[in-house]
Every structure is written in C-alpha cells, then in structure tokens.
C-alpha cells in the first residue's frame, strides 16, 4: 500500500490524497536496490507486464507497482489465466486463489506495537463478518500464522511512502504468507490510528488471498497522474470478477492508493469476495 504527494507531515502523504497500493514510490534505497537487480530479472519483470519504474529489491523478492511483491517463483511460473476486460474499472483476481475450502487462515503479528495487533483483530472481524468459506483467526501465542504481519522502517521519497506490501497466493492454493507494514513515523504518525491501520492490513490481506487492485488498468484513478499506468496482467493474472461494476469505484478497499482514512468493504467488494469465497 502506498500514499502519494508526501509533504512534511508525519502521516502517509500529502494533505489531499494518499495512495493505497502495497508499495511506495521513488525512495533513495529503491534507486540503489535497482542496480542490484540483474538485467535478466529486469527483462522478466518487464515481460510480465509490470513497470520497472521505482522497482525495488527486498529480501522477499521484488516490489513493483506500489505494493505488489513478486517472488522468484512468480517470475518463473507459467501463466495459467487470461487477462479480461482490461479497459474497465472493476474487481480483479489473480489466477491463483486460496483453495481447500472451507479453511481457517491464521494470522500472527511479530515485533510490532500493540496497535498493529489490535488492527489485525479489527481486520479479522471485518472479513469474518461476511460469512465466507475462508475465516481468519489469530495464531496461537508464540507461533507463526499462515500470514505473518511484520514491520519495516522506510521513510518517504519522491512524493510517496510505502504503507505496506504483500504478495499473491501460491500455485498450491495457499495465501501469501507475509504482510510488511511500515513503522516509520511518516507513514502512520507517532500514534497510528487503529482503523486506518486495519484498512491497510485489510487491503494487504486482499492481495494475500488473490485480489488485484480495483484500478489496476489505470492507477491514476486513485493515485493521481503520477501513478498512471496499467499494472499488466502478467503471469499472476488479472481476471475480472463477474458482477462487479464497469465504471470507477471510488470506495473499493482494493484501490491502488489509500485515501488516508478508514476504508473497508463496499457493496461491490462484497460481491467480489462472495464470488470467490462464499
């Protein structure tokens, strides 16, 4: 997840707009990290339809398009799905989704302040209230869940800051196993708002279970002109979910960029989630 147009305040971004994509733009470390990526990897990422602008190498893989984490497995996996209706603004899923339903997905929080743990509990309540065939619960104390929420500390640069990041489900039908949340004061301030954190984590869990950005075909819808561009179907897929709207959906929890506040499921999001998991 990302925010845009950072000024000097210790929140996500500018006073006007925040971005909701799992990654941030143009940090100094991104420029340095990109030089550590081989030409073959850059070519592969570009061939999959992802922009290499502001590409970052992190321990878990490659951070592209604001908040999307591509692993080495993603880069080598053959495409199995289609790219549908890319000119419209609708809910999209990846080729891989969580399988073996009904299923309980456990969530753990590692080395983060209490407010992050409380935000995870709020996120769990939001998903579980939908009555899906996937449910979420906290992992037992001292254990690592199917999804582990961890922290990283990175400041803003180039008008953007990363709020959080996550990847997509595996080819074996498991959710992506980690969400990274930015603990830098410029992301959420020195006293993070519980509902805002819960909204970002809710968005990142959406990626973990197979949702792409609602405005993946043109991120300018939520990110402004500087975020314009189609994220590309790539080998992870960008499959439109039937029943979701063909026009812009300004309240979707899976918009690429955050509005800086509390954003949860709207009616169209519920249609999309029910289609996959109810």
UniProtKB/TrEMBL annotation:
Keyword list, A-Z: Signal
The regions listed as transmembrane in this protein's record are: none
Any Pfam family matching the protein: Peptidase_M57
Glycoprotein keyword on record:
no
Tell me one GO molecular function of this protein: metallopeptidase activity
Signal sequence residues: 1-23
Protein's name in the database: Dual-action HEIGH metallo-peptidase
Query: What is the native source organism of this protein?
Result: Pedobacter zeae
């Amino acid at each position: 997840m990302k925010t845009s147009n950072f000024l000097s305040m210790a929140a996500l971004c500018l006073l006007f707009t925040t971005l909701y994509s799992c990654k941030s733009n143009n940090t100094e470390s991104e420029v340095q990290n990109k030089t550590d990526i081989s030409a073959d990897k850059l070519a592969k990422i570009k061939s999959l339809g992802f922009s290499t602008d502001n590409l970052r190498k992190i321990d878990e893989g490659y951070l592209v398009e604001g908040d999307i984490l591509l692993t080495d497995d993603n880069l080598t996996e053959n495409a199995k799905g289609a790219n549908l209706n890319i000119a419209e603004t609708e809910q999209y899923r990846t080729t891989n989704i969580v399988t073996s339903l009904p299923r309980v997905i456990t969530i753990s929080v590692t080395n983060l302040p209490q407010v992050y743990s409380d935000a995870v509990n709020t996120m769990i309540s939001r998903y579980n209230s939908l009555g899906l065939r996937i449910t979420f619960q906290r992992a037992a104390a001292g254990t690592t869940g199917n999804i582990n929420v961890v922290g990283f500390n990175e400041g803003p640069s180039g008008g953007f800051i990363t709020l959080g990041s996550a990847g997509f489900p595996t080819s074996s039908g498991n959710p992506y196993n980690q969400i990274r949340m930015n603990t830098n004061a410029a992301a959420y301030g020195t006293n993070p708002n519980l509902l805002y954190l819960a909204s970002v984590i809710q968005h990142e869990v959406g990626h973990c279970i197979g949702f792409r950005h609602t405005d993946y075909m043109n991120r300018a819808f939520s990110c402004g002109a500087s975020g314009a561009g189609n994220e590309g179907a790539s080998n992870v897929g960008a499959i439109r979910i039937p029943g979701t709207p063909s026009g812009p959906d300004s309240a979707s929890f899976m918009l690429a960029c955050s509005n800086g506040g509390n954003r949860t499921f709207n009616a169209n999001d519920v249609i999309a989630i029910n289609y996959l998991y109810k």
